[in-house]
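Render this sequence as a predicted structure.
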Amino acid sequence: MSEIPEAMLERRRGLCHKHLAGDGVEVGALHHPMEMGERARVRYVDRMDVDGLRAHYPELRNYDLVHVDVVDDGERLGTLPDASLDFIVANHFLEHTENPLGTVRNHLKKLRPGGTLYLAVPNKDHSFDRDRALTPFDHLVRDDVEGVEVSRSEHFREWARFVEGIEEPAAIEAQAKRLEEVGYSIHFHVWDATSFADFLDRARGHLGGMFQIKEYVLNDAEIIAILERVPTPARRSWMPSGASRSLRGLAARLGRWKSRTSGRVSVGH
């Protein structure tokens, strides 16, 4: 596990100070909580208390973990009232969710109109997911409509093969079964900068226009998107005037960005 470079942290801080204010939560912060500005009051949500997290993630034994204020399923946030929050931070969380579309829907419901959802995901080209295939949007729709059970086991097999480097089929199957039985929080889904932009574009339609994009930022080894909860389905372009990048402009920049960041540190958890 790599430490996060200061330049990445500085970009995160700038976005948080710009967009996050009022009462909110951060989901799955573990040992890397966001540095909030003075306008933001945050509570921490995770699926286990700190003792449970330490048992589940022995690789984090040498790290300080944030105090868990709310024990809840981070994909659903069922203990939190709808329209009760000004912001939600899900930093390197969405790739761990089995149903990203359902997660974004649930998070947006917890926000007041005008509230902010801060999303960051690792860029597969700069993470341990680099050898895995990108997740197609149709796959995510199937998980949302039919249920995550239809693809769960295959995700664990893919993880065992491409992330853990297991080659023998029986060993892949055995490790995948073990991880699934303990509910280990793998990266179920994989994006790069282009495919995550496409995911957000198509997710907006799938979710009935619940959000608009305020910013879309390439931050070295990660991709950050700032979503705003809209009170009623919007009829405008997915990325409003003044946003940091249009899809066309983003695509034009990707080649130059990839060449500049080639070989930099991998970040993920």
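Summary. The chain is about 35% helix and 20% strand. The CA atoms of residues 157 and 174 lie 9 Å apart.
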